[in-house]
Amino acid sequence: MTDGYESMLEAARADERELVTVERLGDRAIVRLSDPTNLNALSAPLTLQLQDALAGLVTDPALRSIVLTGQDPGFSAGGDLELMRSAHAAIDDGREGTTMAWRWIRRQFGGVVRTIVRTDKAFIAAVNGPAAGVGLAFALACDIVIASERARIVPAFMRIGLLPEVGTSWLLTRRIGYQRTFELFAGGGEIGGVEAAELGIANVAVPHEEQALAMEEFAEPNCFTTADHRDAVSSFLAR
Fold it and tell me: How many helices (H) and strands (E) does the chain have?
């Protein structure tokens, strides 16, 4: 008998929509959450597609850096409320208790974060709009965070009666310290891209129209560490 968690995985994998896109640019890749009508909320189908995309990219030896962003107008609204409601139903009817929610948070949301932090690829988060909840955790797990002037940092867990998930409290504390992190979580507020850079949550804030240029500026220096780049330069100079 298939349990609720397995049924959720089956239904998510049966969804034929393209909710995550990957663009390859030589030794770089841009991974874009692509469900803009839902502000790129982390539905089950989108999350599984993101996991699959990242799993393939981080094992590619030709790849040096990966940009994670969202299709305008946002980065990610965080956890999908419909997905949360399905977990409530499983708890209320006594089928699984909190098992389904725990497995999803551990294996899917946590799985994305572990993929980002464990790889030797450089991850760059291009936060182009609201980044909330688990979506914010994905951004904070990246090596570099670039915020556009339209970015909104929304640690929204407290607003819906949840604790910070998948390392968010540690990731944010590492960037801005305990007191500021506590203030953000307890206060339930949000901050813009410029303030995020001033606080140290983002490495830099840029005009929205220039974010693609900034992404390339941060990704390109990684190429200088590669043998392919050095060999190519030497080859050209020897001609």
Answer: 11, 9
Kindly report, residue by residue over 48-91, the tens digit of the pLDDT.
999 999 999 999 999 999 999 999 999 999 877 666 666 555 55
Element (H, E) at 111: helix 110-118
Tokens of 222: 């990684």
Give the start-to-end residue ranges of the domains of the chain: 4-238
Identify whether the C-beta of residue 122 lies closer than 8 Å to the C-beta of residue 149: no
pTM of the model: 0.81
d(CA 7, CA 44): 11
| Beta-strand runs (E) in 139-225 | 144-148, 152-154, 191-192, 204-206
CB 9 within 8 A of CB 43: no
Residues 59-76: b if buried by 16+ CB within 10 A, e if exposed: eeeebbbbbbbbbeebbb
146 phi-psi bin (left φ>0, alpha ψ -120 to 50, beta other): beta
Q: Are 66 and 31 in contact (CB under 8 A)?
A: yes
Q: Which class would CATH give 4-238? A: alpha beta
Element of type H or E holding 68:
strand 65-70
